[in-house]
Recover the amino acids of this structure.
DNA sequence: TGCCTGATTGCCT
DNA sequence: GGCAATCAGGCAA
C-alpha cells in the first residue's frame, strides 16, 4: 500500500529538541508502520511527555537500566516497553542523546490500513482501534522487538501531511494512569477529537 | 531470593 | 463501577 504523495517523513531535527516541544508538535502528525505487506497509519491525537530529572513517573528517573536503555540513545528512535506485564507501549526518544527523555503516544485516529488494524485487534469500532497506548501498538503491529529501532528510516516512522499543515488547538492536562508526579501537566491532546483516550473512567476519577 | 507495584485493558456484574 | 490478568523491574531482606 502506498502512502499519499503529500506525506513527508520527519527527520532527526524534529526529535532533537525540547521534549515538550516535540510532544506538542507530534499532535496531528501521522504514525506509520509498514509491516507484513500492509501499511497502517494513524493521526496522533494524544501524547504524554516524560522528562528526566524532575519527573518521578519517568522510567529514566532512576537512571539507565537494561529496560530503558533506548530512552538514553539518540533521538528519533523508538522506545517500546511492556506495561502491566501485558501491553506494549510506544514512545519516541527526544532531546539530546543521553538525556533520557521521551514522548509516549497514547492515541491515534486511524487513517490507513483499517482492515489490518481490525484483524490484529479483533473486530472493534473504529474509535476504539487506537484509543489507548496498549491498543494502538496492537493495531499497528508494533511489538517489543521495535524497541530501539530508528524512526528516521525503515518500516516504522512519523510523517506529516504537507497538504494539511497548520496550527491545531490543543488541550494540556495531567497525565493519565500514573501515581507519581501526577500534578505535572505533560499530556497533550487534539481539542475536540473523539479519538483521545481516557473517557468516562478518567473523568470519574477526578 | 522474594515481594510489590505499575506510563493498561477488557470482561464481569 | 469493579476487578482480574500477568510479569519484569525495583527494592528490601
Amino acid at each position: 500500500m502506498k502512502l499519499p504523495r503529500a506525506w513527508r517523513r520527519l527527520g532527526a531535527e524534529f526529535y532533537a529538541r525540547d521534549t515538550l516541544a516535540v510532544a506538542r508538535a507530534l499532535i496531528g502528525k501521522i504514525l506509520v508502520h509498514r509491516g507484513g505487506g500492509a501499511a497502517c497509519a494513524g493521526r496522533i491525537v494524544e501524547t504524554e511527555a516524560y522528562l528526566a530529572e524532575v519527573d518521578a513517573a519517568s522510567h529514566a528517573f532512576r537512571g539507565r537500566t537494561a529496560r530503558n536503555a533506548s530512552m538514553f540513545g539518540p533521538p528519533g528512535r523508538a522506545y517500546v516497553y511492556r506495561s502491566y506485564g501485558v501491553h506494549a507501549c510506544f514512545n519516541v526518544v527526544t532531546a539530546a542523546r543521553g538525556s533520557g527523555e521521551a514522548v509516549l503516544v497514547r492515541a491515534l485516529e486511524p487513517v490507513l490500513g483499517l482492515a489490518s488494524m481490525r484483524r490484529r485487534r479483533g473486530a472493534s469500532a473504529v474509535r476504539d482501534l487506537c484509543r489507548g497506548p496498549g491498543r494502538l501498538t496492537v493495531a499497528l503491529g508494533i511489538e517489543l522487538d521495535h524497541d530501539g529501532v530508528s524512526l528516521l528510516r525503515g518500516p516504522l516512522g512519523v510523517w506529516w501531511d504537507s497538504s494539511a499543515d497548520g496550527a491545531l488547538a490543543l488541550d494540556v492536562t495531567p497525565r493519565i494512569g500514573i501515581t507519581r508526579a501526577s500534578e505535572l501537566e505533560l499530556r497533550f491532546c487534539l481539542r475536540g477529537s473523539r479519538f483521545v483516550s481516557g473517557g468516562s473512567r478518567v473523568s470519574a476519577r477526578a
User: Anything to note?
Assistant: The first strand of chain A starts at residue 7 and ends at 9. Helices of chain A lie at 12-15, 19-26, 114-121, 126-129, 133-140, 200-205. Chain A is about 20% helix and 30% strand.
